[in-house]
Amino acid sequence: MAIKEVIKMGHPTLRLTAKELTQDEVNSKWMKSLLDDMRDTMNHLGGIGIAAPQINESYQVAIIHLPPESDRYEDVEESQEFVIINPKIKVLDEQTQIFWEGCLSVPGLRGKVERPAHIKIDYLDLDYKEQSIELDGFLATVFQHELDHLFGVLYVDKVIENSLMYEEEQQKFHSEDVNT
Ligand code: NI
């Protein structure tokens, strides 16, 4: 277990399509220690999700866990911890939603992103079994943000024009400008 350095926007690993994990890899001790490192790093930095590429491990695995209390995100409802391996994302309908997003790899900034509101994720769990989950609301946005990291995409690529700003100014001037 260890807190790892989170690589930042500009690091080439963040722009790669990460490798899918094999069953042997998922069953390995290496995987257990990778997940421990991701979890430790995410908790240390107060994140609500982390993808392996963010600690410079270019593999298709992400952890998402909305904690009961978060310094970085207000009014978030606690979720279970999700470990998502080799995901495929399907958009279920045309409806979209807008939330403020931030990223451990883009520290200090926030921006609004419009994303599909209803999605389905097919993925593998830690037993390498196929799972499927349907999501809406903030969790749907968090999943899309994290899973984008597995395919070389950052939220700043999708940010609504003129909405990218420093966290401090967002809190000072735009805190009522909530999600729509
Ligand atoms: Ni991120």
Provide keyphrases for this structure.
4 helices; 180 residues; alpha+beta; binds nickel (II) ion; 28% strand
**Unreliable runs, pLDDT <50, ≥5 residues?**
none
Strand order of the largest sheet: 1-2-3-6-7
Counted beta strands: 8
Shape: globular
Going by CATH, the architecture would be Alpha-Beta Complex
How many domains, in number, for the residues?
Answer: 1
Helix-residue proportion: 10-25%
Bound molecules: nickel (II) ion
- What's the multimeric state? single chain
The fourth-level CATH homologous superfamily is: Peptide deformylase
- Overall SS class: alpha+beta
Write the layout of secondary structure elements.
Blueprint: H1 23-26, H2 29-45, E1 49-51, E2 61-64, E3 82-91, E4 96-103, E5 106-116, E6 119-124, E7 130-135, H3 137-148, E8 165-166, H4 167-173
Antiparallel strand pairs: 1-2, 2-3, 3-6, 4-5, 5-8, 6-7
Question: Brief description of this entry?
Answer:
The chain has four helices and eight strands, in the order ααβββββββαβα. It is α+β, with helices and mostly antiparallel strands and 180 residues long. It has one domain: Peptide Deformylase, CATH 3.90.45.
Structure description:
There is one protein chain. This protein has 180 residues and is α+β, with helices and mostly antiparallel strands. It has a single domain (12-173), classed as Peptide deformylase (Peptide Deformylase). It is 22% helix and 28% strand. It contains 4 helices and 8 strands; from the N terminus they run H-H-E-E-E-E-E-E-E-H-E-H. It has helices at residues 23-26, 29-45, 137-148, 167-173; strands at 49-51, 61-64, 82-91, 96-103, 106-116, 119-124, 130-135, 165-166. Bound molecules: nickel (II) ion. Nickel (II) ion binds at residues 103-105, 145, 149.
